[in-house]
Amino acid sequence: SQTIHQWPATLVQPVGSPLSLECTVEGTSNPNLYWYRQAAGRGLQLLFYSVGIGQISSEVPQNLSASRPQDRQFILSSKKLLLSDSGFYLCAWMTSGRRVDEQFFGPGTRLTVL
Amino acid sequence: ILNVEQSPQSLHVQEGDSTNFTCSFPSSNFYALHWYRWETAKSPEALFVMTLNGDEKKKGRISATLNTKEGYSYLYIKGSQPEDSATYLCAFYMNYGGSQGNLIFGKGTKLSVKP
Q1: Alpha-carbon B93 to chain mean position
Q2: What's the whole-number mean pLDDT along residues A84-88?
Q3: Of A1, A18, A79, B24, which residue is least crowded by CB atoms under 10 Å?
Q4: Is A55:A68 a contact under the CB 8 Å cutoff?
Q5: pLDDT at B100
Q6: Which residue of B103, B105, B107, B109 to mutate against A (max A Cβ within 10 Å)?
Q7: pLDDT digits over B62-105, tens only?
Q8: Which residue in the set B34, B104, B108 is minimally distant from A102, CB to CB?
Q9: Cβ <8 Å between A99 and B89
Q10: Do B49 and A44 touch (CB under 8 A)?
Q11: Which B residues in the span 13-72 are in contact with A, Cβ-Cβ below 8 Å?
Q12: How far apart are CA A57 and CA A59, in angstroms?
């Protein structure tokens, strides 16, 4: 069966510090991978998605970047965090090319930037 | 800008009440509509994926309908229980003519069921 891992679970970082959130998927190959964020009082916003190794698409311009160095690894990064980067970050995967399939979400990372 | 609207934003009901919420989405270029349940301290989990106009899906006490021509979906919960308390998200997939596209999520309806 497939599982998705995210870490860390919670993170408190000062403004201007770097960020690295990691997501790994087990039990499937060549998945589509996604990073979402839910900021306070807002809906779930897609940040990045990837359909393959090294292929990253950004949905909104922002202070963050993503990388996919391996088939089942997706990393969210920032060089300098802003207060507005606070939120709940979710990684998700979906079978490639199957839009009628559900997305499977990881446990999430609660990021607080102070 | 594509918008997925959910109403109400929040709902408080008593145990045993039946309830329903609405998801509105663009009616053109429809491909699929997803419903997810997001319980506090857990990950969102899929309830239904719906693709056909007139689709009705059911899982236990929860059911959903889909009208792609007018761009809405209803989620119904019959005899709400405290364990139904969660945020219910709908998400819309637009038909990009074969290309990937992505899910566009609504802000969710937060349901609280009092025992």
Answers
A1: 13
A2: 94
A3: A1
A4: yes
A5: 56
A6: B103
A7: 999 999 999 999 999 999 999 999 999 999 887 665 555 678 89
A8: B34
A9: no
A10: no
A11: 31-32, 34, 36, 42-46, 49, 51
A12: 7
Distance CA B43, CA B38 (A): 6
- Distance, in Å, from the CA atom of B104 to the CA atom of B95, rounded to the nearest integer, reads 12
In angstroms, the CA A51 to CA A30 distance is: 8
Copy the structure tokens of residue A97.
């090319």
Is the CB of residue B101 less than 8 Å away from at least one CB of chain A?
yes
- A43/B106 touch (CB, cutoff 8 Å), yes or no: yes
Which long-range CB contacts under 8 A does B77-83 form with residues at least 24 apart? B77/B18, B77/B19, B77/B20, B77/B111, B78/B18, B79/B16, B79/B17, B79/B18, B80/B13, B80/B14, B80/B15, B80/B16, B80/B17, B80/B18, B80/B19, B80/B111, B80/B113, B81/B15, B81/B113, B82/B15, B82/B113, B82/B114, B82/B115, B83/B113
DSSP category for residue A103: P
